Amino acid sequence: MKPKALFILQACALAVFLAGVLASIATIRQNLDLRGKIRNKIETLAQLVAMKQTRDRHQAALRVFEGLSNALPVSLASLGRATVTNATPEIRERESRNLTAGWTLWQMEVVFSEVNLSQVPGFLQAAEMQRPPWRLVECTLASSRQADGLGRVVLILEAVGKHVERGAWSNNGRQTPDARRQTAEKAQ
User: Would the CA dihedral through 85, 90, 94, 97 be positive or negative?
Assistant: First the structure.
């Protein structure tokens, strides 16, 4: 081969090599940019998966509650009279919030004055064993100066149940029979 042709071939090979190096550098830069974008998308997908799992748990809980024969929480007044002796609870509704698909969250305040403090855990256990259950949110105990073992108890309980018309709960925490019947008719 002629030296000029050999020089041209070497120059072409060098140019192809340099073009390859430049293309590799450009690709590496693009990959670094894309890596950050892909990492952000992976984090977003992980958050979406976590949200889906939470939603699935909520849907499963909703199906369980839908399957309950009694869609309304039991009356705290009757439960208090049945489990705590010599004390009538004062009950008032603190809050009721509509949740989803006709379900409501009720928050009730139960006050026992001069009650035997050893009977309160039995009341709480009975409330939690109901279907749907009452859940203890807050508890305040104050001992009595009149006798040992007596005191004032303020409990904040909440439960989830099917929607009840406004005013269906009377001031002592009992659902009126008319409201219970109307709720049952609406469910059918």
Answer: positive
For 118-141, b where at least 16 C-beta lie within 10 A, e where not — what string?
Answer: ebbeebbebbeeeebebeeeeeee
Do 187 and 162 meet the contact criterion of CB atoms below 8 Å apart?
A: yes
The SS3 call for residue 102 is coil
Q: Among candidates 164, 137, 145, which has minimal Cα distance to 70?
A: 164
Query: Which pLDDT tens digit goes with each residue over 95-130?
Result: 888 877 777 888 999 999 888 889 899 999 999 988
**Residue carrying structure tokens 């140019």:** 15
Alpha-carbon dihedral sign for residues 48, 50, 55, 60: positive
Domain ranges of the chain: 1-67, 76-187
Q: Read off the pTM.
A: 0.56
Cβ–Cβ contacts within 10 Å for residue 143, how many? Answer: 12
Strands 90-98 and 103-116: antiparallel
Domain 76-187, what architecture? 2-Layer Sandwich (3.30)
